[in-house]
Amino acid sequence: MPRPKSPRAACWARAEAAHPVRGSRVMARLRALAGVGTLGALAVCGGADAQDRASLLPAASTVPPPASAGPARSAANSLALNGFTLAGELTQGGWLRGSVPRGTRALSLDGQPLAFAPDGRFLAAFDRDAGASAVLSATLADGRQVSAPLAIAPRAWQIEHVAVGKRPGAAPSAEFERRRPLELAQINTARAMDTGAQGWTQDFIWPVRGRISGRFGAQRIYRGEPGAYHSGLDIAPGGGVPFVAPADGVVILAAQAPFTLEGNLLMIDHGMGLNSAFLHSARLLVKQGDVVRQGQVLGLVGMTGRATGPHLHWSIKWKDRRLDPLLFVARDGAR
Length: 335
What we know:
Structural class: alpha+beta
Number of strands: 22
Strand content: 25-35%
Largest sheet: 8 strands, antiparallel
Number of domains: 3
CATH topology of the largest domain: Glucose Permease (Domain IIA)
């Protein structure tokens, strides 16, 4: 009869299942240090001293890019329209990446100015409740205007109708009332940062693999009164499992103490107004101002803040629009 795994061995096994790095020099060194596991397993399960863990951080186990990532998956749907080249997920909660017509000097989406890179590439996205259409407009050097009408597909959101009235929650504590405005100010300041990161040009990867315990856009309706919809994707691989950067970026917020709701909150700017937020971490392994690369370990999954169990809440915003992380990654990671 096989011997049961020790708690530490079980923890290592969960970390390896979430981030396999077979045959790499990093894995070989980790095995030499601790017998088995990844950086995240060493950090949370033990097996190496602090100096060893710190020295391994930059080369921490990375998640190999999936066979087909978000933008690549949509390449077959790319189109050329009135001088624009466009590809992406033209749906509520989705995104669009493209190139402007030659000679463009100004770009807008539904009349709002839209930035584009020196090589003409740009990013746009559509909120969870976006309307059925949008218009891209480019002003050319000779003053002519070129437009591309876009059809935004609706989504069949996970809506639950509840035959009871919406119950008021408990009155916020004085401590919450004191802390929350300061936390929101930090979040808003972080989202306003423009770091020039280029992660927005990459095919995103899963920050961690695991059971999907909450989907973007899910919502309850209480006798006709809508509750707030779920603003991100919840992934539950188990507590202490490492999660990684889905794309290159710059850390714009790394909570030094758990926030009241988000717990150990981490925010990454990917550039062009696109940012990721990771909530409820047990531990953060990067700090504000750090430049991170796709696949770099950022922290460990936990349940700090307002959470009923260990999971990673991953949300993505473009400007003030909330997006569905599931539309940025290969669907083979969902289960």
